[in-house]
Write a structure and sequence with these properties.
There is one protein chain. The protein has ten helices and ten strands. By secondary structure, the chain is an alpha/beta fold. It has a domain at about 95-160. The strands form two sheets. Strands 6-7-8-3-9-10 form a six-stranded mixed β-sheet, with helices on both faces. It has a four-stranded antiparallel β-sheet with strand order 2-1-4-5, with helices on one face.
Length: about 260
């Protein structure tokens, strides 16, 4: 029986050229939940993300993914564990020179021996669930709206059916309306595909709409953790101050979430 804790960090540290960027991070992400990691620029969010998905090595501590510590792993085992993650990048990170079909099918080309017809069918299955029809297959990324690019990037991240989706600033650069549509997409994806979601974001509004739990990082340390409501109305002054300075109407967001 798998543990409810799908990603666990214990005293994780990371240094670059003698400068400690992450200073003993303890973190638990539970299966099927959405965890938001929030903080200002330079707080260490992106470094943390890269360590969790095995793109960088921690200087110290443990990172358990489905019970396996990835910190001491060699590249071959790391590649196996990386397939448990689907990455949704800040600006979708689509390849501009190839079609939507080829962008979304890319993980299948890299990791499976499916025929072109089977790849196309699998791509279309994911796109249709995400609200896109066959007409987008031949389009190039530059021909898509910001919201459509996010959906295509999400479809690509889901192609190998990973249990964990990691979102890197998913609402960055989007207008408020499109940002909220992306929030809904993250929620819908979690429910439809039964995935665990880890969202790296500076968007407090997004955090309050989608997070089961949130952690606030500052200067390489977790300075607050809890539900969004606990961060906004709890005793942690650092969290309350960070949220207040974001200028977001928290009470309004919580009313929206309850609908």
């Amino acid at each position: 029986m798998p543990s409810d804790d799908i990603v666990v960090l214990r005293q994780v540290r990371k240094s670059f050229d003698g400068t400690e960027v992450l200073k003993g991070i303890d973190l638990v992400c539970r299966r099927g939940q959405t965890l938001c990691v929030v903080g200002g620029s330079g707080a260490g969010k992106t470094t943390l993300l890269r360590l969790v998905v095995g793109l960088d090595k921690a200087t110290g501590g443990q990172i358990l993914v489905d019970g396996e510590d990835i910190v001491p792993m060699k590249e071959r085992d790391l590649n196996r564990v990386r397939r448990k993650f689907g990455m949704v990048y800040q600006y979708a990170a689509l390849l501009d020179s190839i079609s939507v079909l080829d962008n979304v099918a890319f993980p299948l080309v890299e990791h499976t021996k499916l025929s072109a017809a089977d790849r196309r069918r699998r791509v279309m299955e994911k796109l249709s669930v995400l609200g896109l029809d066959e007409s987008v297959l031949s389009k190039f990324p530059a021909e898509l709206s910001g919201g459509m690019r996010k959906r295509v990037g999400l479809a690509r991240a889901l192609m190998l059916d990973p249990p964990i989706l990691v979102y890197d600033e998913p609402t960055s650069g989007l207008d408020p309306l499109t940002s909220r549509a992306v929030d809904e997409l993250i929620d819908e994806t979690r429910e439809r595909f039964a995935v665990t979601s880890i969202v790296i974001t500076h968007d407090i509004a997004s955090c309050f709409l989608i997070a089961d739990e949130a952690v606030l990082i500052a200067n390489g340390q977790i300075v607050a953790r809890g539900t969004p409501t606990e961060l906004a109305h709890g005793e942690n002054e650092t969290a309350r101050d960070f949220i207040e300075k974001s200028g977001v109407d928290i009470d309004h967001l919580m009313r929206l979430r309850k609908r």
